[in-house]
Amino acid sequence: MSKVRVHNVTISLDGFAAGANQRLDAPFGDGVGWGDELHSWFVAATEDVAAGKTGIDADHLARGDRNIGATIMGRNMFGPQRGPWADESWKGWWGDNPPYHHDVFVHTHHPRPTLEMAGGTTFHFTDEPLETVLGRAVDAADGQDVRIGGGAAVIQQYLRAGLIDELHLVIAPMLIGRGERLLDNLGDGIDGYRVSEMVTSPAVTHVALVRR
Amino acid sequence: MSKVRVHNVTISLDGFAAGANQRLDAPFGDGVGWGDELHSWFVAATEDVAAGKTGIDADHLARGDRNIGATIMGRNMFGPQRGPWADESWKGWWGDNPPYHHDVFVHTHHPRPTLEMAGGTTFHFTDEPLETVLGRAVDAADGQDVRIGGGAAVIQQYLRAGLIDELHLVIAPMLIGRGERLLDNLGDGIDGYRVSEMVTSPAVTHVALVRR
């Protein structure tokens, strides 16, 4: 049976996955440079994986792509626009050949036509309920697992609903002060989870949550 | 010159130092057993220190008592009562011989007479401003450092005011979901701090914040 997994979601020491006021010229929100600092471990680990190196960060990063057949994300992760689409020229942050290579379901109150990209990535835009979208993603994954890509609000919704099987998050050694907290507004959903791993590399701390 | 230090403050993975509704029969607030779970590393490390053992947790724990000449705490850390003192029979959580053995300054809107305990601990109750209380504590420390003992609200106030030199906190691998967040409401105070250490033992992750 397909698992629902979250991987490589980076938060600051004070718990923020993104700052306030995300927008096109500041995809992680207000503040200079901290979006880069927050994800610097990710960039370094990506280079390590590409070079065939192993290590705590590279191993955790690579795990996130293994056996994933479909991805679900929030509209804010797909793009910086809010409200109705002014036009449909925006095709995501990732260029013509996005690094998914499978079906990606984008939760949005403003659906638009399905978008087929090079390399096998197809973006589906939907305002259906979580369970319906997850069902479609499981079908699309065809026996592989489904990844919830983010952002924080979407992960919270799936966690609160108890729909996530494994959540890997990464604590970066920095303070942001304000923005969007990942582990917040979880209600009783969190009672079903326990920490199964906590390990620190020279750069960050990796934490895994799994069902009790 | 005296430093102002915070040590061994334990927070959950989701950032809480205490739950909601702290009271006499639930000093860490609502919820069964998690106060014990949050601090289980502390109990084990205390036993290790007493037995002369070393290790990541024991070493961090012991550091918190080194070269400390005075302690500052909030009234909620001194006791579970709120509002005016019904009587003054409460003498803290720690019995007749508290583990401080120096002057302890308790921030409270409801001052009461100074309380001399066995073993050299003297509790002073004050509604003076942070800077005044810190000045008194520095004098009392007589060349040694001053420790801010807690709870979360008092640590936040000193951090926001930029008055803390070193902050050692401990992340326990558990979720609490609601309560009092330590790294919250810090305003621009946090801009003066950086993470100087992050290390994980088999039990917890230790993090140190210092001035930039």
UniProtKB/TrEMBL annotation, chains A, B:
Cross-referenced Gene3D superfamilies: Dihydrofolate Reductase, subunit A
Superkingdom of origin: Bacteria
Domain called Bacterial bifunctional deaminase-reductase C-terminal: residue spans: 8-187
Signal sequence, start to end: none
Protein name: Dihydrofolate reductase family protein
Species assigned in the record: Streptomyces tauricus
Lineage, opening ranks: Bacteria, Bacillati, Actinomycetota, Actinomycetes, Kitasatosporales
